[in-house]
């Protein structure tokens, strides 16, 4: 069952950490999402991909300082676009999302991604919408073999499970209000990162033990977490290696610019 055309609200995270970002510093811009990649502000790439997709009805840019984007010539078009609106974010992703859900009348489903997801494209969005539709919550990830088959020198952070080594693709799906307890837990952990045991307590000891002993698959583990919360949770194993390559470090930008250059040839 697919989400109706133009019925999805996309949330584009365009915030930044309080510590100086190397990409922003090198570019001489105040915020990382404004840093250029291949001659354009990085946020413009995922923003255009979202707006061009037939399933996306509206885009909400969540950021600490909306005025920065309205004042920058490279991103002023976002502030003027009829299907884009800016909302102020807080100190963390989960807390900002919770606050947004509380103050704004947002229809589900919601698809969330990040401003540094420069390589986001229609194929990735097609797969996410197709495979996440019907779930209360879904997370996109890339298995290591998928990435290394195309980019053997790319380095990511991997989570090891019985069904492979996985890296996040920065695309999330919230299909219904049932996702709120998971977002609330996320917020709780963000507020006190030292108490990571809260995650274990919420997800259940079998999930942790399965991960440690590598007897659980990631797909099964996510489904089990969903059942713990009384909802349908799903892994979307992305087919495109580029789904987990974001513009986080200077080396990432070099790789992304090479990918963009090859695609333009």
TrEMBL record:
Domain MobA-like NTP transferase: start-end pairs: 31-144
Superkingdom field: Bacteria
One annotated GO molecular function is: nucleotidyltransferase activity
Which InterPro entries has this protein been placed in? MobA-like_NTP_Trfase (IPR025877), Nucleotide-diphossugar_trans (IPR029044)
| Key word Magnesium present | yes
Keywords for this entry? Magnesium
Know the name of this protein? Answer: MobA-like NTP transferase domain-containing protein
Give the organism, scientific name: Sphingobium chlorophenolicum L-1
């Amino acid at each position: 069952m697919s989400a109706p055309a133009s019925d999805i609200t996309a949330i584009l995270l365009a915030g930044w950490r309080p510590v100086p970002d190397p990409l922003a510093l090198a570019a001489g811009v105040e915020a990382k999402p404004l840093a250029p990649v291949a001659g354009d502000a990085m946020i413009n790439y995922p923003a255009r991909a979202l707006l061009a997709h037939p399933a996306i009805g509206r885009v909400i840019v969540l950021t600490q300082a909306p005025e920065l984007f309205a004042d920058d010539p490279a991103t002023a078009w976002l502030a003027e676009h009829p299907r884009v609106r800016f909302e102020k974010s807080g100190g963390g992703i989960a807390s900002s999302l919770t606050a947004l859900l509380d103050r704004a009348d947002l229809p589900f489903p919601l698809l969330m991604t990040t401003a540094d997801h420069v390589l986001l494209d229609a194929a990735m969005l097609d797969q996410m919408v197709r495979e996440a539709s019907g779930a209360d919550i879904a997370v996109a990830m890339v298995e290591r073999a998928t990435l290394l088959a195309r980019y053997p020198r790319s380095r990511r952070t991997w989570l090891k499970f019985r069904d492979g080594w996985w890296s996040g693709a920065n695309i999330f799906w919230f299909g219904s209000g049932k996702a709120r307890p998971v977002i609330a837990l996320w917020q709780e952990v963000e507020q006190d990162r030292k108490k990571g045991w809260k995650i274990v307590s919420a997800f259940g000891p079998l999930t942790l033990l399965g991960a440690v002993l590598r007897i659980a698959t990631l797909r099964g583990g996510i489904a089990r977490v969903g059942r713990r919360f009384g909802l349908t949770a799903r892994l979307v194993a992305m087919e495109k290696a580029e789904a987990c390559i974001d513009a986080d470090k200077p080396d990432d930008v070099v790789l992304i610019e090479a990918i963009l250059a090859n695609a333009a040839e």
